[in-house]
Amino acid sequence: MHSLRVSRPHAWRNGSPPVITTSQGIEGLGVSDGREAIVRNDADDLANSTVEVLTDSRFYTKLANNANYLVRNKFSWKLIADLLDEIYESVAHEKNN
Predict the structure, then answer these.
(1) Phi, psi angle pair for 38, to nearest 5°
(2) What element of type H or E holds 50?
(3) Are 66 and 34 in contact (CB under 8 A)?
(4) Which of 1, 23, 38, 69 has the lowest CB atom count within 10 Å?
């Protein structure tokens, strides 16, 4: 499961189709149901939502664009590098004290 959660942001950044999944499948990514992805926990609801996304091109595009925006603003390499830099500086500072 974990590797799938890591690959979703990468796929969204590269323009993958919208994600329709369970709450467990999208856990920890900061996604809102109906904004960046469709989150359903029942098989019938998953199937119906899949049909809805595939037949409503505006909704499809909205989900794809919102997911791409989320990734570019939450998971960019610059943000990750800046966060790691802060962690390393904090650890180095603690070690020197």
Answers:
(1) -110, 125
(2) helix 43-55
(3) no
(4) 1
